[in-house]
Write a structure and sequence with these properties.
The chain is an alpha/beta fold. Helices cover about 35% and strands about 20% of the residues.
Length: about 375
């Protein structure tokens, strides 16, 4: 396997883009990444997306995008892995270059959600769960996470308010991110008084959906000869667990997250202590806590303690959601994993502005599909 570098990134603001189509959003991010990398031809294109068939009546996103951006005849494929579609697409692009099959790979995550009625989006998101044993029994995707959170609070003796700092931290960081959907701070009082969605998940425990696209250009690392620091993929892994939560041996543990992060630590030759920034999948605050535990930053049942003690802030032991996370930057589901990659690259380059982390050697992204059924993990490394 040859070493792979990320040399170009691009993204759109996450918002309700009434004036842009799915292809335009994907094209904007893709062309921005290619322009930054000064590359005008790619070998492979991987498009991470979950809902285009439901929300946009459009399949064949690979062909659609390759044609739109002037890359006709490139190998181009859509990758679907629920909310981890972006991370799965990045892994596919990485493997295409690392294996030697391609010299240049363009990876794009895109989602266009606001053109569709909320009932259609809710039904579409539910397809990330088990259709037979969860959805057909009337359980929504939010309800599944609420069940996990309720049991977690019972087992480990946490209160609703103990999860507030995850959201407060995300909003504080999003203030400085022009691409974030919500660029306003959040107070503890606002968190406490937010309406309940599905007990114990309130509105401020949950991430907002939206339209957006993010992209990265991957090449053979030996192509990068400039004096600037190059960002290489030091680890890439994916793992699965049962799609239905009730079939898991430990419903309060992200086993796929533990395995995929363990694999990337081994590939990179580092421990969790060496990670300078962690972009986790905070679709709900309970997933933030479970991600910290699965990735080795907190003991079981102790995830909320890291937040309450300020360890997740920019200057803390493990900075998270440094550009707003899913909670404030936004969660355009199939694109989220690529936003995480773009943000880790920004941090390692020293381009994160007011939310720049002090340690810039290694960054990690963990992207969750479903409620932990499919998880991709990536470690990026800055080579001086």
């Amino acid at each position: 396997m040859q070493e792979v570098a990320v040399i170009g990134i691009g993204q759109t603001k996450i918002d309700e883009h009434w004036d842009k189509s799915l292809r335009e959003l994907a094209g904007d991010a893709a062309l921005a990444a290619m322009a930054e990398a000064q590359i005008d031809r790619v070998d492979t294109i991987y498009v991470g997306n979950m809902l285009s068939g439901v929300a946009n009546a459009q399949a064949q996103l690979g062909s659609m995008l390759s044609d739109w951006i002037g890359q006709r005849y490139s190998e181009a494929i859509k990758i679907e892995s629920a909310c981890s579609s972006g991370g799965a697409a990045f892994r596919a692009g990485y493997l295409s270059v690392a294996s030697g099959e391609a010299d240049v790979s363009l990876v794009v995550g895109v989602e266009k959600m606001t053109d569709s009625p909320s009932s259609e989006i809710t039904a579409g998101l539910a397809t990330a769960a088990d259709a037979d044993w969860e959805v057909d029994q009337g359980v929504s995707f939010v309800a599944l996470n609420a069940l996990i959170m309720k049991r977690y609070m019972h087992e480990y003796h946490w209160r609703d308010i103990d999860f507030a700092e995850f959201s407060i931290n995300a909003h504080a960081n999003a203030v400085h991110n022009p691409y974030a959907r919500f660029q306003q701070p959040l107070t503890e009082s606002q968190f406490i008084n937010s309406p309940m969605i599905c007990d114990p998940i309130n509105l401020m425990d949950a991430s907002p959906i939206g339209d957006g696209a993010a992209a990265a250009l991957l090449v053979r690392a030996d192509w990068v000869t400039s004096d600037v620091s190059k960002i290489i993929v030091a680890g890439s892994a994916a793992a699965t667990d049962t799609i239905a939560i009730h079939n898991r041996k430990e419903p309060l543990w992200l086993a796929a997250g533990e395995k995929s992060t363990r694999d990337v630590y081994e590939q990179a030759g580092i421990s969790p202590a060496e990670i300078g920034v962690f972009e986790y999948h905070d679709a709900f605050t309970i997933m933030a806590a479970l991600s910290l535990e699965a990735a080795g930053f907190a003991e079981r049942g102790k995830g909320p303690a890291l937040a309450k003690e300020g360890m997740i802030k920019i200057n803390g032991r493990i900075p998270v959601a440094t550009r707003g996370g899913l909670k404030a930057r936004g969660h355009p589901v199939g694109a989220t994993g690529m936003y995480q990659i773009v943000e880790v690259v920004q941090q390692l380059r020293g381009q994160a502005g007011e939310t720049q982390v002090p340690r810039q050697d290694f960054g990690m992204a963990l992207n969750i599909g479903g409620s932990g059924s499919n998880i991709t993990s990536h470690i990026l490394k800055r080579v001086k």
